[in-house]
Amino acid sequence: MAQSAPEPALAPQVDPAAPVLLFDSGVGGLSVLDEVRRLLPQAPVIYAADTAGLPYGSKSEAEIAARVSGLLGRMTERLHPRLVCIACNTASTIALAAVREVLEVPIVGTVPAIKPAAALTQTGVIGLLGTAQTIRQGYVDRLEAEFAQGKVLLRHAAPELVGAAEAHLRGEAVDPAVFARAVEGLRSQPGGERIDTVVLACTHFPLVSAQLAEAFGPGVRFVDGAAGIARRIAYLTEGQPFARREPDLALFTAAPGEAQPWAGLASALARRGLNRTAVF
Q1: Is there a common fold for 20-110+228-279 and 114-224?
Q2: Which of 88, 162, 215, 229 is catalytic?
Q3: Is residue 202 annotated as a catalytic residue, yes or no?
Q4: Which residues contact 24 (CB under 8 A, 6 or more apart)?
Q5: Which of 8, 16, 84, 159 sits at 20 to 30 Å (Cα–Cα) from 241?
Q6: pLDDT score for 12
């Protein structure tokens, strides 16, 4: 007697309250959260900022890979997210593959938006602002080779902008010279005067895009990956139920002796629906 074929296994059920976990070294990933909110306002979110490890751009690749993999492993075990987004270009370009080997949930990374920038430029000269670690990654070389053939991509490390974005979100004044130096770092390179499109290759940088626009002057547009990341998250969670059973949470790692690493950020967090804070 022929045996009937076994029924296919059912897809695992997703807890409607399971959060989307957004991870960054600091507050830069809030620029990604803004886009996620627009597409998935009903999705419960935990925003995790590794403020004790900030900045990533000055750390070695080995340090970043070990730190990000370890933190996300522990966070996933405790928080049970439905999806993890590494909302940090530096961490993604260095640690994304390692994290995907460790975690069993879907992982969305962040990559410099070179492809859309290449499609937008009219002069053929693109600027890229990022951390020192990001701009020298082979991943950026591959994106340039694949999507920006026939274009000129000028790169500049602007680590000062990370601190400027963090300060700006806390309501602190930022010296305009910080933005002028970032602009000069691109404009002073051969062909830099022809830049008409700038890739913001750090999730912190869109938080100060208005200040960068003023420093660059007219005729320059900015491109970042936040909208594309949000679309990818929406695609991977399509059809899943969402239920927010408690206010969304902002988690921070704290340096020794630091009681409230979110000090000064209450307003910025509340505007994004992050009405609870805690130390991880």
Answers
A1: yes
A2: 88
A3: yes
A4: 30, 32, 47, 48, 49, 50, 86, 87, 88, 91, 203
A5: 8
A6: 59
pLDDT digits (tens, 9 = 90+) for 133-144: 899 889 899 999
Task: Kindly name the residue from 46, 195, 202, 223 that is annotated as catalytic.
Answer: 202
For residue 275, the tally of other CB atoms under 10 A from its CB is: 13
Domain 114-224 is found in CATH 3.30.43.10: no
Active-site residue 85, yes or no? no
Structure token pair of residue 258? 């630091």
| pTM (2 d.p.) | 0.90
- pLDDT (tens digit per residue) in 144-174: 999 999 999 999 999 999 999 999 999 999 9
Domain 20-110+228-279, CATH: 3.40.50.1860
